[in-house]
Specification:
single chain, mainly alpha
Amino acid sequence: MTEEVRNQMSEEISSSLEKLQGLELGSKEYLTAVEAIGKLYEAGTRDLVEDAKYDEMIARREMDEEHHQQDLEEKRKDRKWRLLEAAASLILPLGVYIWAFGTGMEFEETGTISSPWVRQLVDGIKPTKKK
């Protein structure tokens, strides 16, 4: 209900209450006027309650939408971190392995593999026939 209608209803209730003062207490006209005022008041109250429920529903939807957006953002961040973790778990060991192999090959300039840890690295890369 618009503010204008509410104001009109409030004015109607006020004018009806003023008219009610001029009527004889307990008369048929008095009881009819009291019933009419009660119905007007009840309609106004019902409308205010419905407006409050509607406003509450809109606010709840906005909060739910906001919460949903926050959940989506958290899921995106979680996926990014898991992807970075998986990439790091593959790339870091590979980098260390390549570095160790390169460093070992620098020590082995004579062409023979004399240090046991470089020999193990090379054996892991170069397949050999086992007897």
